[in-house]
């Protein structure tokens, strides 16, 4: 993770439905877990999508990447670390890492960039200071 402050940490147990014909986690499951980690981080910060929409804005994924380091199998517990690492004028940058909880081995790592957009028009908007403050990313913090 590129930021000093501690990331959100959550776990998921690999379900059979998340595995492929080789018996390992299908790569797309990591994107679902990443999205769940984002939602958990928003809730923990007190700035979830309901609040975002009430404030008139939302986010769109504009870039995401994951590197796969090792497989996970049915029944493994996957520890996920997720952090908001930077907030630009209209963008939110995050880092994600998934580890096997039992072994500590890194399974996947990556990042996502979200664009802030008006909830009605989809036009680019500035990320509100309240959001920045919720993640400790106001200038001078």
UniProtKB/TrEMBL annotation:
Belongs to the 4-hydroxybenzoyl-CoA thioesterase family. It comes from Halospeciosus flavus. Pfam families: 4HBT_2. This is Acyl-CoA thioesterase. The keyword Hydrolase applies. InterPro entries: 4-hydroxybenzoyl-CoA_TE, HotDog_dom_sf, YbgC/YbaW. Keywords: Hydrolase. GO terms for molecular function: hydrolase activity. It is an enzyme of class 3 (hydrolase). Its EC number is 3.1.2.-.
